[in-house]
Specification:
This is Protein tyrosine phosphatase. The protein has 136 residues and is of the alpha/beta class. It is built from four helices and four strands, in the order E-H-E-H-H-E-E-H. The protein has a four-stranded parallel beta sheet, with helices on one face.
């Protein structure tokens, strides 16, 4: 069975949503992706939606929405996006903090940079799971 990965940050509107989309796009054969936060926003960050659509052809508005930690199933791996405040806690067998800056309110360059970093980290995570480097 594929491990479940949760990408979490406080608002579940930008970085964690981008990670969920890219996890589904690049690693769905290896793990299941979801995202959540301790607070929700009425909509996903629309700059993030636009950039992910431009770069990867994925429309997050159609497939994703802001969720609370209590809205998602039990997971095996928790990836924290990098909260400067207290990161949400979710029980898991493996946890990492990717320490990403929040691009909200910044220019497209920042969003593109963040998306590319997330893409690389998602692929690396998939590789480590596949190689058994992450023990679950």
């Amino acid at each position: 069975m594929k491990p479940k990965v949760a990408f979490i940050c406080v608002h579940n509107s930008c970085r964690s949503q981008m990670a969920e989309a890219l996890g589904k796009l690049f690693a769905s054969g290896i793990f299941d992706s979801c995202s959540a936060g301790t607070e929700t926003k009425p909509e996903i960050n629309q700059d993030a939606v636009r950039i992910i659509k431009d770069l990867y052809g994925v429309d997050m508005n159609k497939t994703q929405y802001s969720k609370l930690l209590t809205d998602i199933p039990e997971v095996d791996i928790v990836i924290k996006m990098g909260c400067n405040v207290v990161c949400p806690y979710l029980p898991s067998k493996h946890e990492e903090d990717w320490g990403l800056e929040d691009p909200t309110g910044k220019d497209d360059e920042e969003f593109i940079k963040t998306a590319r970093i997330i893409e690389g980290k998602v692929k690396d995570l998939a590789e480590r799971i596949k190689n058994g480097e992450i023990v679950l």
